[in-house]
Amino acid sequence: MKRAILAGLLLASYAGYAKGPVTGDSLSRKTVTVYTTAAKTTLRIAATDKLSFSPSKQPYETEVCIFVDPAKSFQTMTGIGGALTDAAAEVFAKLPKEKQAELLKAYFDPVNGIGYTLARTNIHSCDFSSESYTYIEEGDSALKTFSVKHDMTYRVPFIKAAIAAAGGKLTLFASPWSPPAFMKDNGSMLQGGKLLPRYYQAWANYYVKFIRTYESLGIPVWGLSVQNEPMAKQTWESCNFTAEEERDFIKRYLGPTLQRAGLSTKKLIAWDHNRDQIYQRASTILEDPAAAKYVWGIGYHWYETWTGSSMEFDNVRKVKEAFPDKNLIFTEGCVESFKLDKVNDWALGERYGTSILNDFNSGTVAWTDWNILLDEKGGPNHLGNLCFAPVHADSKTGELIYTNSYYYLGHFSKFIRPGAKRIIASSNRTDLQTTAFVNKDGKIVVVVLNTSDKELSYKLWIKGNAADVKSLPHSIETLVVN
User: Fold this and answer.
1) Count helices and strands in the chain by DSSP H and E runs
2) What is the pLDDT of residues 431-459, one digit of tens each?
3) Catalytic: 229?
4) What global pTM score does this model have?
């Protein structure tokens, strides 16, 4: 990405909800700034128009409209971000210093970048590590040898650099891919297997050790998930829990252990797997009060498509309808099967745009991408599970390759800030998808996604006033009403 593009990304600061409702009279004094990213153009989160509202009577059915109602509000935004894995940290460490600074600014600066406020990291190794490792010696169920020395080379410095780039605060949660091999019935961190019951308490203690150790290093941990992808037997680090097993581990071991350790304020996330089975898992855990009291929310991924399914947003919505007091968090997503000659495919970003928009409309409060940085091979990954990231680094030249996924993510993360509340946004054409939020300063943010081959003109219609907007083919727009 050219420096000029980074420098041109503008965002006002947010402070305090504006007072008073949005009315027709107040809208007549507001403007709409349009930011656009579009296929077959050079537009990348570019300010493309500044529009005014004018009175608009009842629209005809022939008029294309996005209807926004700020009076109806829903969930409050926690944050948007990505994963700070071993792989991302290793690639980052090999970049020239000026490119490291560029990447940190691109992701975490809210003015000259896309303003990430949320991050995920792995508890010891995952597939996006260069090797399998744990923080203890094999067989040490008392955790006397616990040490994160491995992480001190790449990951801890990288996370600290990200926190600093984000202004000193970054909402971070952690996820385990597998307990140590000796704690499992298959004797391996790989290939699924189950946590042996006699190690349930030792494994619960392990989470506490991780949190306390990272926090002693100056890395606050906001939350944790129970287990990454508990229904997947992967060739890499994985561990399987049925819904009942996860429920019982939470209520009998992990929840009470966090509470006894004074860590009950940490946000505990259950499931952390795909949308296809999210309701079955959520209902099994949350219908048990003894387990539910420890659970902040349900995490999920987008890989249900491996079965041939489309992304199943309605399942997410059903969880929110059934358990309105619990939160929803998208914990991981990436485009798989990396190929360097595909980094400019427009479908990469459109998958992100479609997912984020529909997940928010389903009640999600936080959205976490997978690796924020990988190399030109889609790794490193110790078992060859190579994937796309929004940004890739060429290890030979040190150059950064910004895919359009980075910009699609930025249309949300840059403008929809923590504390924003989702409001109603309704489209009368299937070719235009939309979501909307009102930030703490009262600015209304409307995102409009066009995945069609058509240029579409539409009205942004709010309380009897409308602004005329144009949507380019295969584009995403963020409209800021101020």
Assistant:
1) 13, 21
2) 999 999 999 999 999 999 999 999 999 99
3) yes
4) 0.95
